[in-house]
Design a protein that fits this description.
The chain is α/β, with parallel strands linked by helices and 421 residues long. It has helices at 9-19, 25-34, 44-52, 73-78, 96-116, 127-135, 155-163, 194-206, 217-226, 250-259, 269-272, 274-290, 303-316, 324-337, 365-374, 379-403, 414-418, and strands at residues 37-42, 81-88, 121-123, 139-145, 166-170, 209-211, 232-233, 262-265, 343-345. The protein contains 17 helices and 9 strands. The strands form 2 sheets. Strands 1, 2, 3, 4, 5 and 6 form a 6-stranded parallel sheet that branches. A 3-stranded parallel sheet has the order 7-8-9. GO terms for molecular function: metallodipeptidase activity. One of its GO terms (biological process) is proteolysis. It holds the Pfam family Peptidase_M19. Keywords: Signal.
Length: 421
C-alpha cells in the first residue's frame, strides 16, 4: 500500500476541516428562525449621509463596498438579522436646534429603507409588530435617537419623534447637556436634573425605551431610580473587562437586573479591550505631542514630520488585536453578573472605524452566537441574547405606557423645572 507524502497532510487536513459542517450552524439557524436577532444600535443612516452624501437617497442598498460599509441588504440576510434599531445620530457639538433638523432628516432616511425596499424592511413600533415582520421574512426596522440634545430641551419634540416612529432616546451622547451628564464629558449635575427626570417619565408615558448608553454612572443610577419601565443600554459593554465609563459597572449591572432591563454589548474595540483602550489613549497623546497647533508640538509647522513620527511610534507600538472571543467575554460577564435575561447585542456597526476580528459586518452575528454555544450556552439562552430579552423589555415598556395612558402630556421645561434663567 502506498503512503501519502507527508507534505500533503496539512492540505488534506485543511480540506477536510473546510468540508466538515459547522456543528453549531444548524443550532444557530434554528434559533434565528424562531427568534428575531435584534441589534440595538447600527449607524447605517449616518454612515450613508457621511460617505455618499446626497446619493444616500438613491444609492442601491443591496450590496455596498465592505471596505466602506458594515451593512447592506445581502449581508443583513446572511447574518440572519430579524430586527434592527437604526441610530439617528447627529453631532452633539451642533446647536441643539440644528440637531433637531438633522435628526428629522436622519429619521426620514431610515424610513426610506422600507419605502425603497418593502420586501426587505418593515417599519415597526411594537414587540408584536417586530415578531410579525420577522415571521414575514423582513428585517424589522426601529429608530433610536442617539442623544438628549436632539430634543432641544422640548418634550414636544420628543413626542414628535415618537410619532415618527422613534423607539428609544439615548439620554446623552458624548457631551453633557443641560439636564443630564455624559460619560465622556465633565459632569455638571451629578446625574439627571429635575427636567431630566421629567424626560424619563415622558419616555415611559410614550412607551419609548430609556437608553443609558453614553451617560455617566450618576445619570444611569438616577434614571434607574425614576423609571417605571425597564431600561436598555443600546450599545455598551462590561466595565469590569474594559474600564471605560462608556461601559457598565457591576454595581449598575445588578440594578439593571432588578429593573428588568437589558445591556446590549458593543463591538467598538476601545470598549471591548482594555489593552486597545490604553493604546488608543497613548496614540492620541502622541498625536498631540507631535503637532498641536497653534503653539505646541515637537513638529509644529511640519505636518509631514509629525506624520512620520506617528508612523514610527505605531510601528514600535502596534495596535492590540481585538477579537470576536473578547466580545463574547463581555456577554458572558454580563450574563454572569446580571443574568442571561439581561444581555443583548448592540454592535455599533457603521458607527466605528474598526471592528474586532471575526465581526467585520452584519453577516457575522451567527459566528458570535456559535462561539457562545461552544462555551456551553443553551439554545434557549442564545435566543434570549439574540432577541427575546429585547422583545420582553419592549413589551414591558408598552404595558407601562398603557398604564399611564390617562396622564396628560408632559409640559415641563428646563427653565421651569431646573430654575435655569
Amino acid at each position: 500500500m502506498k503512503t501519502l507524502p507527508l507534505a500533503l497532510l496539512p492540505l488534506l487536513l485543511a480540506t477536510a476541516a473546510h468540508a466538515a459542517p459547522d456543528p453549531y450552524a444548524a443550532r444557530v439557524a434554528k434559533v434565528l428562525k424562531a427568534t428575531p436577532l435584534i441589534d440595538g444600535h447600527n449607524d447605517w443612516p449616518e454612515a450613508l449621509a457621511d460617505k455618499v452624501k446626497e446619493q444616500r437617497w438613491t444609492v442601491p442598498l443591496n450590496r455596498l463596498d465592505p471596505a466602506t460599509f458594515h451593512t447592506d441588504i445581502e449581508r443583513l440576510r446572511a447574518g440572519g438579522v430579524g430586527g434592527q434599531f437604526w441610530s439617528v445620530w447627529v453631532s452633539a457639538d451642533l446647536p441643539e436646534l440644528q440637531q433637531v433638523k438633522d435628526t428629522l432628516e436622519q429619521i426620514d432616511l431610515a424610513h426610506s429603507f422600507a419605502r425603497r425596499y418593502p420586501k426587505d424592511f418593515a417599519f415597526v413600533n411594537t414587540a408584536a409588530e417586530l415578531r410579525a415582520a420577522h415571521k414575514a421574512g423582513r428585517v424589522a426596522s426601529l429608530l433610536g435617537v442617539e442623544g438628549g440634545g436632539q430634543i432641544d430641551g422640548s418634550l414636544a419634540v420628543l413626542r414628535s419623534y415618537r410619532q415618527l416612529g422613534a423607539s428609544y432616546l439615548t439620554l446623552t451622547h458624548a457631551r453633557t447637556i443641560a439636564w443630564a451628564d455624559s460619560a465622556t464629558d465633565n459632569p455638571q449635575h451629578d446625574g439627571l436634573t429635575p427636567f431630566g427626570e421629567a424626560v424619563v417619565h415622558e419616555l415611559n408615558r410614550l412607551g419609548m425605551l430609556v437608553d443609558l448608553s453614553h451617560v455617566s454612572e450618576g445619570t444611569m443610577l438616577d434614571a434607574l431610580r425614576v423609571t417605571k419601565a425597564p431600561v436598555i443600554f443600546s450599545h455598551s459593554s462590561a466595565r469590569a473587562i474594559c474600564n471605560t465609563p462608556r461601559n457598565v459597572s457591576d454595581a449598575v449591572l445588578k440594578q439593571v437586573a432588578a429593573n428588568g432591563g437589558v445591556v446590549m454589548v458593543n463591538y467598538a474595540p476601545q470598549y471591548v479591550s482594555e489593552a486597545r483602550r490604553i493604546w488608543s489613549a497613548a496614540r492620541s497623546g502622541e498625536i498631540a505631542r507631535y503637532n498641536a497647533p497653534p503653539f505646541n508640538g515637537l513638529y509644529i509647522g511640519d505636518p509631514e514630520g509629525a506624520k512620520k513620527a506617528l508612523a514610527d511610534w505605531e510601528k514600535a507600538n502596534p495596535e492590540p488585536v481585538v477579537t470576536l472571543s473578547q466580545v463574547a467575554d463581555h456577554i458572558d460577564h454580563i450574563a454572569k453578573v446580571a443574568g442571561v435575561d439581561h444581555v443583548g447585542i448592540g454592535s455599533d456597526f457603521d458607527g466605528v472605524g474598526s471592528l474586532p476580528q471575526g465581526l467585520s459586518g452584519v453577516q457575522t452575528y451567527p459566528a458570535l452566537l456559535a462561539e457562545l454555544m461552544r462555551r456551553g450556552w443553551s439554545d434557549a439562552d442564545v435566543a434570549k441574547l439574540a432577541g427575546e430579552n429585547v422583545l420582553r423589555v419592549m413589551a414591558a415598556a408598552e404595558k407601562v405606557a398603557a398604564g399611564m395612558a390617562g396622564e396628560p402630556a408632559g409640559s415641563g421645561t428646563v427653565a421651569g423645572l431646573d430654575g435655569v434663567k
